[in-house]
Write a structure and sequence with these properties.
The complex is a heterodimer of chains A (146) and B (608).
Chain A: H1 9-31, H2 37-58, H3 66-102, H4 107-136, H5 138-143
Helix pairs in contact in A: 1-2, 2-3, 3-4
Chain B: H1 2-24, H2 34-48, E1 61-67, E2 70-77, H3 80-89, E3 102-113, H4 119-124, H5 129-132, E4 141-146, E5 149-153, H6 155-161, H7 182-192, E6 204-214, E7 221-224, H8 236-252, E8 263-265, H9 281-298, H10 304-321, E9 325-326, E10 332-333, E11 344-345, H11 346-363, H12 369-382, E12 392-394, E13 399-401, H13 409-424, H14 427-442, H15 457-465, H16 473-487, H17 517-535, H18 541-557, E14 576-578, E15 581-585, H19 586-600
Antiparallel strand pairs in B: 1-2, 1-3, 3-6, 4-5, 4-6, 6-7, 8-15, 9-10, 11-12, 12-13, 14-15
Classes of the chains: A mainly alpha (146), B alpha+beta (608).
């Protein structure tokens, strides 16, 4: 009997995307709600993009939607990375503003900012980085019929 | 090519950081030398008396004429001559006591955006930062061009307006205030320009100043930074003088009834009515403790009557408070209860004992010992078998509150017991103090407890006070560790380049000015930690340096003849709440001056 080797990675990535989307949504809604529209939009971009990544990635189970699913996952992942870069820029702009106004940023604030950026990279950026890397490989393209 | 692509994010990050930093940065201005400052002040003083004369050119200036701590005149000019002309034109000035007036000059420097006025900050800064932390308080002024009029609100005027820490960033927590209230500053600038509508935030900008003021005898000027002249050089004599000045402040702020004038607003000169319910008995007792300590060390006789007057007030309260009673074993006890209180606080009674014991240590007079013994019976009653304390007591029900936990009270009670041992030699007090200290120190005996300390200054003062009756090395280890924890909050010279005036203070970030009281209360604890090290033959030199830095900072902050030009009311010796909080409370003076007088006894001696 011939053994069928199915690539499990799209399913794993899709499941992770879905979990992250739910966690992000809960965090933005309940834990760190922001009353300012620009900040709120920035934060809500995370669960929305994670959900698009999840739907696109899990489209591997629907042959007719595989191609568009691949594009959706790559685009949403790339936007997620852009959002991460923007978050880092916001931290840097704030730090530069404070250093300019006060003449110093201080060890505590510098440490907090560094930890903040590290957490953003770890929590937001790593998943799309690995997922896009996979989707761009030959195996990733093949899984989506490309 | 790939390498260049990888560098793009870094280049973007660095470029954006540089653009924003450069836009907001106003470097500290070069200071005029004494000769130039005297020329400026001389020209202004001549003009003030109605005579014209040559004026040096130093750029735009703002001039404030102070008399008895209040602003008599305030003019702006594009140069000294223009400001002098306005003073000369003000004929009403000549009717004033100009001999005692002091001229302050702010030479205006720099021009930078305020808050989120820069597009990158408006679009990208984290929420709230641009607004709440828009101004370096006491350093930055705010200006605007309103029509053809230039309006400048000087750094000290922003401080006096109390708008630098009155921003309410959250509607959810209305009591939480931090940072600048820009809305009210917009209105303040508008009123200065004669308008009724607030000036748009976009029209406001920041500037800095080279500020100086005449000395009282008009023979010199002193440069100001954040409104404060250079501090006296740290020495035993300087500390003793400063502590005695603090003692004079408190004696001047003690009413005939023996109750202190609790707070003194340096901007308005307003003092708390001693009959007001706005009072704290622990602070009454703590302040009297400091006066007794000052008397013990200096033997200045003018202190004795006010100390006894403050004790008489305590005795009156004890007589009227109905807080006392008899324990089941027949021991009489008493506790301090203010007129408007229905619940007795452990801290009030504990610090009253400390003050009474200090008086006996100073004078040898045992007249208050029976009273102190009754109060100490209350402290012993409030102690649990494990060494901890109940902090509140309902005198009507004769019932302690088993749940309430108040800051400081356990450490204060431990000190009270240690002091009772010092004046009586009775072992029951030393054993109770040891149990209390063991409980306080061992409370941290869990994993996360190794990362932080609470406000443990009374604990360390008590740990030293009980020596040599209790010689536990773990107290020294605890207090040296507390010192290391606090040093992490103490800026060193050059660490915060624009804010070297904060060196020695305890603060968390450069964005929030430090409170002055911790420079006293924590230093009091560090003095005890250091002395504990001396007793054990192993004093920590880092703690000694920490004490010196904090006291050098505190010397600069105290109101003294150099710096009282803008303090309304008799305020010499007072200690403001912070460099930007122009309010003196009795315990600010108590804590700082207590540390000063204790350190004055050994600070000039070489380290053992």
């Amino acid at each position: 009997m011939r053994r069928i080797d199915r690539d499990l990675r799209p399913t794993i990535y899709g499941a992770l995307d879905q979990i992250f989307a739910i966690v992000y949504a809960y965090a933005v809604w309940k834990v760190i709600p922001n009353r300012l529209p620009s900040a709120s939009a920035h934060l809500w971009a995370l669960p929305v993009l994670a959900e698009v990544m999840a739907l696109g990635t899990l489209a591997v189970w629907v042959p007719a939607a595989r191609r568009i699913g691949w594009w959706a996952a790559v685009a949403a992942g790339s936007l997620m990375l852009a959002v991460t870069v923007l978050l880092i820029i916001r931290v840097l702009v704030s730090a530069a503003f404070l250093a300019g106004t006060y003449g110093a940023f201080g060890k505590a604030a510098a440490s907090t900012a560094m930890i903040g950026v590290a957490i953003v990279i770890e929590v937001v950026a790593l998943l799309p980085v690995f997922q896009i890397k996979y989707l761009m490989t030959r195996a990733g393209r093949r899984a989506y019929g490309r | 090519m790939k390498f260049v692509v990888l560098l793009v994010p870094t280049i973007v990050f660095v470029a954006i950081t540089a653009v924003v930093y450069r836009a907001y940065r106003i470097p500290p201005p070069d200071r005029l030398d004494e000769a130039a400052r005297m020329q400026v002040v001389g020209a202004l003083r001549t003009a003030m008396t109605g005579q014209g004369g040559a004026a040096p050119k130093v750029g735009p200036v703002a001039v404030t004429v102070w008399l008895n701590g209040r602003s008599l005149a305030r003019v702006d000019g594009d140069d000294v001559a223009a400001a002098a002309a306005q003073l000369e034109a003000n004929t009403l000035l000549r009717a004033q006591d100009l001999e005692h007036a002091r001229i302050q000059v702010d030479v205006i420097h720099g021009h930078a955006p305020l808050g989120a006025n820069h597009p990158l900050v408006a679009a990208l800064a984290l929420p709230g930062i641009g607004d709440a932390l828009a101004v370096n308080p006491g350093i930055d002024g705010i200006g605007a061009q309103v029509g053809d009029k230039t309006v400048r609100v000087l750094p000290h005027e922003l401080v006096a307006s109390k708008l630098l820490t009155s921003n309410h960033p959250s509607d959810v927590v209305p009591d939480f205030a931090m940072g600048v209230d820009l809305k009210r500053i917009q209105m303040l600038v508008a009123l200065r320009a004669g308008k009724r509508e607030p000036v748009a935030v976009g029209a406001l900008y920041r500037f800095r100043t080279d500020t100086f003021v005449e000395t009282a005898d008009h023979t010199h000027t002193v440069a100001l930074y954040r409104g404060v002249p250079p501090a006296p050089k740290l020495s035993g004599a300087a500390l003793r003088d400063a502590a005695l000045l603090g003692g004079h402040y408190l004696v001047d702020h003690l009413s005939p009834s023996g109750r202190y004038l609790y707070e003194h607003d340096l901007v308005s000169g307003q003092k708390t009515d001693p009959r007001s319910p706005n009072y704290s008995m622990p602070r009454h007792a703590g302040t009297t403790y400091f006066l007794a300590e000052l008397y013990r060390i200096t033997k200045e006789e003018w202190l004795r009557e006010p100390i006894e007057r403050a004790f008489a007030h305590l005795a009156d309260l004890l007589a009227a408070g109905h807080c006392g009673g008899t324990l089941p074993d027949g021991t009489e006890y008493d506790c301090v209860l203010d007129r408007n209180e229905s619940v007795a606080q452990l801290g009030s009674t504990a610090l009253a004992i400390v003050a009474l014991a200090e008086y006996q240590r100073a004078t040898g007079d045992t007249r208050y010992l029976p009273l102190a013994t009754k109060l100490a019976a209350f402290i012993l009653y409030m102690q649990r078998p494990d060494g901890s304390f109940r902090h509140l007591f309902d005198p009507r029900k004769k019932q302690p509150d088993e749940k309430a936990e108040m800051l400081y009270y356990s450490g204060e009670a431990a000190l009270a017991l240690a002091r009772m041992h010092a004046i009586t030699g009775e072992a029951r007090y030393s054993k109770a103090a040891e149990r209390a200290l063991d409980w306080l120190v061992d409370w941290y005996d869990f994993f996360l407890g190794g990362f932080f300390y609470g406000e443990e200054h009374w604990t360390c003062i008590a740990a030293e006070a009980i020596w040599p009756a209790v010689k536990n090395p773990k107290y020294q280890e605890f207090c040296d560790g507390y010192g290391a924890f606090l040093r992490a909050q103490q800026p060193e010279p050059g660490e915060l380049p624009d804010e070297d005036d904060y060196v020695g203070a305890y603060n968390f970030t450069p964005f929030v000015p430090p409170y002055n009281t911790p420079a006293g209360s924590r230093t009091g604890a560090m003095i005890s930690a250091y002395l504990l090290g001396v007793h054990h033959g192993d004093p920590d030199p880092a703690v000694r340096a920490q004490i010196a830095a904090a006291l050098q900072y505190a010397l600069g902050q105290q109101i003294r003849p150099d710096s009282d030009f803008d303090a309304a009311g008799s305020a010499d010796g007072g200690m403001p709440g912070s460099p930007i909080e122009r309010n003196v409370r009795i315990d600010y003076v108590q804590h700082v001056c207590s540390a000063m007088i204790r350190a004055s006894e050994w600070i000039d001696q070489p380290a053992p």
